[in-house]
Amino acid sequence: MRFFGDREEYLAKLRNVTIRDARRKIIAAFSEGDAELIQMVRMLDEIDEVVNLLTEKAVEWYLVRNPGFSRKYKSMSAKRMVGVMKKERGPLGRICAEIDALSDQRATLMRDVSKRTDAVMPNCSALVGGLVAARLMERAGGLSVLAGLPASTIQVLGAEGALFSHLRAGESAPPKHGIIFQHRRVHNAPPGM
Amino acid sequence: MKLIRGTIVSVGEGGVYGERMLNGCRVWDPHRSKLPAAVINGAPLDLTADMRVLYLGAANGTTVSHVADYVETVYAVEFAPPRPMQDLIEVARRRHNIVPIMGDANRPEVYGCFVEAVDMIYQDVAQPNQADILRKNLPFLKNGGIVVLMLKARSVDVRKKSEEVAEETRTALQEMGLTIVWTGTLDPFHRDHTCMICTKGGE
């Protein structure tokens, strides 16, 4: 019995099946909840980077306009510095207002990430805190991937550069921690512990 | 392989990923794609219109689209991360001789029902067990068929030199009953890569 008229028809039907199968798997992967969390964490870190860069540039600009200021800003937090610069008249003030708004967005997004992490990975979140948990999951590439990783890998997640240069050249010391360093119990731990 | 003034091209509808066109043909850039890099480095490779190809590690379908321009059918296997697969489906929508398969090259028993006997296996996967993956997929290859293995040494073991990994893989391929007809690096186009071309059984 022949199911298909010719090879062309067979391939067309086969492609229908495999494409539908792939689409179904993609939708399933996206609907797990961790997929959006990954994107949220990446956006958060990117906004961080952008805010820092813009603030740095704005400070240089501000110093040109206020040559006497240079000492003070080093003891000032970046956030406060932006607040001061916001009051400048003209383009610098306008841009600093944008930077300020963006760092407010960042703070809101951070709370969103924590909340989402509590829902997606409640145990890990309770153990190491929402942000650290979310970053670990982001670096692993997914919740089920993270769940299957050995402890030694989780320990150095986020320190891949240091790890691979140690493995390759063997000259530098191996990294002791990656993302987990952001947890206060880790970065406040007494040396030698 | 079709060449225009020393540049490898393929004949097909352009605009897949922003590739340049040359006399109406799609330029196949050795810096972007490993297969033309191997050909430039002397790999005895020819893609012909009657070939059926099993392509492992299809990624977003850049190389796949060029291979499909040359051959009869390409079974393009790509694993999880959804983004490349979405791109691959998009490429396959325009090229009706590509069968995109979302599956793990480590588990051919899962996608085996979609694949038929092929004339060539092209493998480019960034996995530590690259030789093992090939061994598992070898039953799909016809007797006398060709294997093109793009071996990424750094995925196998970062501590070992590219040559060491190549040597180990060479032994593994021979134990599978493959005859290695050509080995070469992909320098200067892709670092730490070795291309191996083998034939299965007979001559």
Describe the structure.
The complex is a heterodimer of chains A (about 190) and B (about 200). In chain A, about 70% of the residues lie in helices and about 0% in strands. Chain A is built from 10 helices and no strands. In chain A, helix 2 (about 35-65) crosses helix 6 and helix 4 packs across helix 6 (about 130-140). The longest helix of chain A is centred in the first third of the chain and has 32 residues, at about 35-65. The model of chain A has no long low-confidence stretch (mean pLDDT about 90). Chain B is an alpha/beta fold and about 200 residues long. Chain B has 7 helices and 11 strands. In chain B, strands 7-6-5-8-9-11-10 form a 7-stranded mixed sheet, with helices on both faces. In chain B, strands 1-2-4-3 form a 4-stranded antiparallel sheet. In chain B, a hairpin with a 2-residue loop joins strand 3 (about 20) and strand 4 (about 25). The model of chain B has no long low-confidence stretch (mean pLDDT about 90). The interface between A and B is medium-sized, with 19 and 20 residues.
